Amino acid sequence: MKEKALEGIRVLDLSRVLAGPHCAAILSDLGAEVIKIEEPEKGDESRSLRTFSNGESAYYMNFNRGKKGITMNLKTGRELFLKLVKEADILVENFRPGVMDRLSLGYETLKKYNEGLIYVAISGYGQTGANSQLPGYDPIAQAMSGICSVTGWADSEPARCGAPIADILAGINGAVGALAALNYRNRTGKGQMIDISLVDVSVSALASLNQVYLSENRVPPRQGNGTEAAAPGGSCHGKDGTVIFAAGNDRLWPRLAAIMEKPDLAEDPRYAKNAERVKHRKELELLIDEWAKNFSAEEIVEKMRSAGIPAGSVYTIDQVVNDTNISRERNMFVPIHHPAAGEVRITNNPIKMSLTQPEVQGSSPVLGQDNKEIYSKVLKISEEEIGILQDNKII
Amino acid sequence: MKEKALEGIRVLDLSRVLAGPHCAAILSDLGAEVIKIEEPEKGDESRSLRTFSNGESAYYMNFNRGKKGITMNLKTGRELFLKLVKEADILVENFRPGVMDRLSLGYETLKKYNEGLIYVAISGYGQTGANSQLPGYDPIAQAMSGICSVTGWADSEPARCGAPIADILAGINGAVGALAALNYRNRTGKGQMIDISLVDVSVSALASLNQVYLSENRVPPRQGNGTEAAAPGGSCHGKDGTVIFAAGNDRLWPRLAAIMEKPDLAEDPRYAKNAERVKHRKELELLIDEWAKNFSAEEIVEKMRSAGIPAGSVYTIDQVVNDTNISRERNMFVPIHHPAAGEVRITNNPIKMSLTQPEVQGSSPVLGQDNKEIYSKVLKISEEEIGILQDNKII
User: Fold this and answer.
1) A10-13 vs A90-93, strand pairing mode
2) Does pTM top 0.90 for this prediction?
3) Contact across the interface for B332 and A200, Cβ inside 8 Å
């Protein structure tokens, strides 16, 4: 096995469902030892979230791959937890702000036990501000950040992005913060607290659209699959599916007119210049669809690409999973062997590194599966004591 | 000024437009010295991309904040570039794969000059595979990764996410790779190459939806703003705007029925259990809209939140920028002072760190503004020689 970038780094993962678990899964893929700490008997609520493989939540499996799993009641097990904190480098949690403080386990407390601890807190609205106590929820962060306002068409309903993008962005930004903090700790020995909000990361992803208002005082509209500034572009419709393309500049448009076998269109005063094409956008779309309906989506893509026009099919998820390029050449889906569910394929980490390739380190844990290893080997607790902790439901 | 996580790290940014510049901007916010290298006289093509502030591209300003700017022709200035590579820690580029090799500046060449160099290459489809030579373009990556297939409503057109999410995710994943590689280099002295693709990062963001097909062999549909598994939830429509909410479990739904002043609905056999509510989803939506239309979006949100129901308004970008929580309490928009455009507000980095707070380090550069500093101070080139380089359009 190749070396890993985060070898020797230990992460405590107290988080649940998506954003926090995704952050810790990235750190696991990069080679950290991630110990997921769950409530005895119950565990992370996403253990019962769709989708299932052989009765086990494959949702949980994906976001908790490659982690060790222990159980611990953070109230009655507080002393145990503090011992574990002394042995850790990074902690990830996504409780509502204040929960860890009320357990007397907030960052200010933990850093007394481990000055080098890097504490990543992910929440809906951040640790500060008037909204901090509201529950975090991906579709609502998408709404409040403005993502929904610019997704879909101007003459219909605002839509959320079908991917849980606020959660995903929060997880990755948490990883950026943790890794930057690790770099600082390498120089200084000091840990710190990192505060990530679902709304903030979503606002940040809209920077180019925010700028329309910040610089021009204009509210960017929903533009469907095209762009305000150029035409034609966006979607066209083949016999069996939708294609997204961009032929909105004066160099690409004549090429499209040529493959449509209507080269005259490129000279037509209504369409010759982009400024005019933008005004006659709807007519152009109809003309292109009239041509496109004779071909399959893949044929349209091939024709456009041959002419140097950027184009791609709107793949459904089955097409993505079965695509040779994505699946085989880029290795985006990998098997794990789950103790209960058997072999399950999950989505791979997208980062490729030449020396320390990120890899899914193994299955997600069965609830409490690594209690013995962590409590006896890391915390040096005797088997007898472990039995007592179990009997008292502390672990 | 506070310390920064990446103090002492030097980044060469050869990238253009969005994904690469975003990656390097994150490293700048974290405290790295980022030197953006642009083609003499032309510069990054996004210098002419909308949106504008006082005639300068604010798009460029946002994604290139806090960078130094130099000009260099990579063909005629190859030797100069190699000298600079020796002084660098990280390089970011988003050329089409093969461009740097054809300049004899590919990673395998550069590492002979600097073994510790971390080389981040961002492209549409990755450095390997049959699609590598296709142009990268955010909406097409959204299409080919499956994002469009799950965005919008099942009975209408697939939509892209209004944020350029493939580009944004590529930039952040590039930063994760660079920071993980930096951690590895701290232990070993070795740099490496990082390969990020717009399609891969988008596929990765869909993990929870990919799993529906990977585990259940079912293609996840477009679900609008709701979810397949629970009702009611998604959007409802107030007098002046749309609200996104989630009241799909058996605990929250009776609370919604209560604030609608129709507590009987919670007992109605058509709506009492989630399994039934999902079947009668459309009826429920109409009932909720019938109630919602009497109130403003903010009133609906307030009523729902008071009842413990997660809810938020679909903010337009002006509402986001003017929101006290996002703008002031979370400080998501910050001013830069651009030499030509004057004061312009841009979108802040969303990561908050207690010791090494990421900060926008200053304005974007005017083309070639730091030639003198970098060529004379870093590369020790005399003023006379710099003049000759300029005369020959090498810089």
Assistant:
1) parallel
2) yes
3) yes
